[in-house]
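Project outcomes to date are best conveyed with an example. Our students and postdoctoral researchers have been running inverse folding experiments weekly, and each run begins with a structure described purely in C-alpha cells. The record below, which covers 419 residues, was selected by the lab manager from last quarter's runs and is presented without edits.
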C-alpha cells in the first residue's frame, strides 16, 4: 500500500512538471517571437526585455536546454550591440561562447553562431584583428558542416578583411558570399542586399565611385521591395550612399541620404550609437567640402565624443576623427590646431597593437600637407615618403594610393625646383 502510494505521488509529480514545462515552453516561444518582431522593427530595448523573459524560464529548466540558452545569450548580446550598449553586449556574447564551448560539440552550429556574435562585438569595438579571428572560426565550422550560414560568415570575414586593409581578399570573400546567396536564397532578401551594400563600400574605399553607387543602388532596390519606408533596415545603406555622393561632389543627394540615415538612427538607436558617429562624421565631411568649416568641426566633435565613449581614446576610429579635425583646421588655416589634432591621430595609431597601414598612410599624408602649407618642404617630403612606404608595404593596396603618394612627392620636388 505504501509502495503504491509513493509510486502514485511520483507519477502525479512528474505529470505536474511536464505540464509546467509545456506551459513554459509555450511562453518561451511567445516571448522569443515577440522579441524577434521588435528587433526587426529596431525596438532593441523591448526586444531585449522579451528575450530576457525567455532566458529566465530557460535557466530553470531541467535538463538545461544548452542550445537554446546559447541562442538566447548571443541574441541578447546582438541586440545590445545594435542598441549601442557594448558593455552589456560583451557580457552576453562571452556567456554564449563559454556555454557553447563547454556544453556543445566543436562543430555545433550554435558554437559557430556564438563565435560570429563575438566577432560582431569586436568589430563594433574596432578590434578588427579579433573580429576576423572569431569570424574565421565561425566560417570554418560552417564549411565543415555545410550549414545555411556559410554566406553570412563569408560576408563577415570580408568585412573584417576590408577593415584590416586587405581589399583584394575582401573582394573575393564578398563575392563568395554574394554568389552563395544568389544561388541559394535569391536576389530579393535582406542578406543579398547586405552583400551588395558591402561590395559598394569596398569600391568606395577603392575610389571606384561609379561601381560603388551602382552596387548601393541595387541594395536600395532590394530593400525597397522588402520593407516599408522608414524602416531601420535602410539606415546603414543610406549612410553609405550619402558618403559616396559626397565624394562624387553631389552634395544635394549626399545630404539627403545622410539626413535620412541620421533620422533613422536617432529614432531606433541610442544617441550614443557608433553608427550615429559615422553619420556625423560624414555630414562633417560634406559641409567641409562646402567650405563651412565651423559647422564641420562641430559635427566632427560630436562624432569624436561618441566614439571615445564607445571605444575609448586608443582606437583607430577615434584617431581617424582627430585626423578629420586636423584636416578641417588646416583648410581653415588654423595651423596650430591642425598640427595638434594630426599628432593626436598619429600617436593613437602608433600605439595600436596591430598597425593599420592605410590609416597611418593617411595620417602622414595629412602631416605632409600641413608642412607643405607652412613652407617646410623638407619635412613635407619626409611625411609623404613615410605615407608612400605604408601604402607600398600593404601588399593588397590599390595603385591609386601609391600613385597619389608619388604625385605628392613630385609636387614638393617641383616646389623645391629640384628637377
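After processing, the design step wrote out the following sequence:
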Amino acid at each position: 500500500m505504501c509502495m503504491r502510494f509513493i509510486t502514485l505521488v511520483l507519477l502525479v509529480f512528474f505529470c505536474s512538471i511536464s505540464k509546467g514545462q509545456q506551459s513554459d515552453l509555450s511562453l518561451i516561444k511567445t516571448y522569443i517571437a515577440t522579441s524577434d518582431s521588435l528587433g526587426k522593427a529596431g525596438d532593441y530595448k523591448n526586444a531585449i526585455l522579451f528575450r530576457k523573459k525567455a532566458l529566465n524560464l530557460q535557466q530553470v529548466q531541467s535538463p538545461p536546454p544548452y542550445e537554446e540558452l546559447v541562442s538566447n545569450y548571443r541574441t541578447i548580446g546582438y541586440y545590445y550591440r545594435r542598441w549601442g550598449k557594448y558593455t552589456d553586449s560583451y557580457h552576453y556574447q562571452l556567456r554564449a561562447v563559454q556555454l557553447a564551448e563547454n556544453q556543445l560539440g566543436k562543430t555545433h552550429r550554435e558554437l559557430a553562431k556564438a563565435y560570429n556574435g563575438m566577432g560582431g562585438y569586436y568589430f563594433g569595438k574596432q578590434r578588427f584583428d579579433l573580429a576576423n579571428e572569431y569570424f574565421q572560426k565561425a566560417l570554418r565550422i560552417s564549411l565543415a558542416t555545410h550549414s545555411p550560414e556559410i554566406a553570412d560568415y563569408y560576408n563577415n570575414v570580408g568585412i573584417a578583411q576590408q577593415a584590416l586593409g586587405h581589399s583584394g581578399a575582401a573582394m573575393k570573400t564578398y563575392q563568395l558570399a554574394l554568389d552563395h546567396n544568389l544561388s541559394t536564397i535569391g536576389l530579393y532578401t535582406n542578406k543579398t542586399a547586405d552583400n551588395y551594400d558591402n561590395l559598394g563600400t569596398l569600391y568606395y574605399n577603392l575610389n571606384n565611385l561609379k561601381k560603388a553607387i551602382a552596387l548601393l543602388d541595387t541594395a536600395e532596390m532590394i530593400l525597397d521591395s522588402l520593407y516599408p519606408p522608414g524602416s531601420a533596415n535602410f539606415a546603414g545603406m543610406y549612410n553609405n550612399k550619402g558618403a559616396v555622393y559626397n565624394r562624387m561632389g553631389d552634395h544635394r543627394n549626399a545630404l539627403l541620404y545622410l539626413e535620412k540615415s541620421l533620422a533613422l538612427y536617432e529614432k531606433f538607436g541610442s544617441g550614443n550609437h557608433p553608427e550615429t558617429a559615422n553619420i556625423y562624421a560624414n555630414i562633417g565631411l560634406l559641409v567641409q567640402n562646402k567650405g563651412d568649416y565651423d559647422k564641420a568641426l562641430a559635427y566632427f566633435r560630436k562624432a569624436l565624443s561618441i566614439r571615445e565613449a564607445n571605444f575609448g581614446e586608443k582606437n583607430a576610429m577615434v584617431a581617424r576623427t582627430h585626423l578629420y579635425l586636423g584636416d578641417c583646421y588646416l583648410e581653415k588655416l588654423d595651423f596650430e590646431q591642425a598640427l595638434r589634432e594630426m599628432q593626436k591621430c598619429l600617436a593613437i595609431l602608433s600605439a595600436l597593437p596591430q598597425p593599420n597601414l592605410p590609416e597611418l598612410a593617411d595620417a602622414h599624408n595629412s602631416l605632409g600637407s600641413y608642412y607643405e602649407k607652412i613652407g617646410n618642404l623638407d619635412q613635407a617630403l619626409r611625411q609623404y615618403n613615410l605615407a608612400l612606404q605604408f601604402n607600398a608595404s600593404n601588399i593588397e593596396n590599390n595603385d591609386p594610393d601609391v600613385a597619389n603618394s608619388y604625385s605628392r612627392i613630385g609636387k614638393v620636388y617641383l616646389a623645391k625646383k629640384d628637377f
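The chain is about 80% helix and 0% strand. The CA atoms of residues 19 and 25 lie 10 Å apart. The training component of this project remains on track.
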